[in-house]
Amino acid sequence: MTGSPGLSGPPSSFRSLFSGTLVTLFVLVAAFVGLNFFQGPKLREVIVDTGSIASASNQRIRLVANQSLAQVRDQQIQISPAAEFRATTSGTILDITLTAPLKFATDYTVW
């Protein structure tokens, strides 16, 4: 019996469920890709020579991001306790050059 009406129901229902699942997965993947794109840069690495940062001037703190950075001005960075510095941005790297040695045995915060 090739024309049996019971054989056309389940494959059509399966196709409908399968298509709905694919559309849902596509929408979810697109949403996560969009969220990841608009998230902005994240800090990937910090490079500091801890041995000489308290003993020599012009030492650098290098912050490496996972995406290109916009130009960062000195006024956008704060170091606590206060320390004199200048900042330069190049691609994914933000260089903070300390113009004087930091105080020994002192915790500093950069933000």
Cα(first) to Cα(last) distance is: 76 Å
**Order of SSEs, N→C?**
HEEEEEE
Give the mean pLDDT: 88
**What's the alpha carbon Rg, rounded to whole Å?**
28 Å
| Main sheet summary | 4 strands, antiparallel
Please work out how many helical segments DSSP would assign. Answer: 1
Work out the helicity level. Answer: 25-40%
Regions with pLDDT < 50 over 5+ consecutive residues?
A: none
Number of domains in the coordinates?
A: 2
* Cross-sheet strand order for the largest sheet: 1-2-5-4
Supply the helix-strand structural class: alpha+beta
Shape: rod-shaped
In terms of DSSP E residues, the strand content is 25-35%
Please tell me about this protein's structure.
This protein has 111 residues and is an alpha+beta fold. The chain is built from 1 helix and 6 strands, in the order αββββββ. The strands form 2 sheets. The chain has a 4-stranded antiparallel sheet with strand order 1-2-5-4, with no helix packed on it. The chain has a two-stranded antiparallel sheet with strand order 3-6. A hairpin with a 2-residue loop joins β4 (85-90) and β5 (93-98). The radius of gyration is 28 Å and the shape is rod-shaped.
